[in-house]
Design goal:
mainly alpha, membrane, 81% helix
């Protein structure tokens, strides 16, 4: 799937960025918000951590790139 090592690197950076975004969003939401907006943002955070996990699984299980 990933023939180029740089593409694989950028995809993994996107996954790590989504994880970071999810953690920051969760911390902010739990400390500062309440009501319906809190649950909407927590849902967005949960979806982003799921997507990030799938990206990481994809990157890890595609194996090394040929040189």
């Amino acid at each position: 799937m990933f023939e180029d090592g740089l593409v694989k690197m950028w995809v993994s950076f996107i996954g790590m960025g989504l994880m970071f975004f999810s953690v920051i969003l969760t911390i902010f939401t739990k400390e500062k918000l309440s009501g319906v907006l809190r649950y909407i943002l927590l849902t967005i955070s949960f979806i982003s951590i799921i997507i990030a996990g799938l990206i990481m699984l994809l990157v890890v299980f595609t194996g090394p790139v040929p040189e």
